[in-house]
Write a structure and sequence with these properties.
Elements: H1 2-17, H2 24-32, H3 38-52, H4 54-82, H5 113-128, H6 134-153, H7 159-194
Amino acid sequence: MIEYLNSLDTKLFLFLNGLHNAFFDPIMYWFSDKLIWVPMYVIIAFFIIWKYKMRGVIILIITGLVIALCDQTASHLIKNLTHRLRPSHEPALAGLIHLSKAGPGGLYGFVSSHAANAFGLATFLYFVLDNRFRFLKYWLFLWAALVSYSRIYNGVHYPADVIVAAILSSLIGWGMAKLYQYIEYKRSIQHDKIT
């Protein structure tokens, strides 16, 4: 069964990775670059603090914890447990893969840290931000999907690497959102008692 799933994963990877072209190559390279998104993060942080004041600071602190949890789970726990080679390091796929100028990446790829971080962030903010941020909430999921797809396009992750990362990190983001909502609930009870 595992071999069959790996075979399907490889076929889907080769199909998606084979869709590359000169127009999208630089776009997908930049979608995978973490630094390109710093201005977006700064703008999001600004609006969260502007709208929520001190609660916004708490949201951003927990957002940092969500990303750290997702990243450490993907990069250090799961990758070190599974030791699944990235497609870019798989000898059987040599010469069949389109790689971006970023290169082959680290040795192991299951699960994708990029996908984990993006979906963890998107899920957490989806559940903690109110409807004033409706556009942002949906944009973050589209952004997470594009970042995840770019990892396949760039030749460094199989589809399963990003799908499993998305599922696990969405659970982490949801769990941390529930923790945040519990903290806010307790704070509101304390505030009501004081006033």
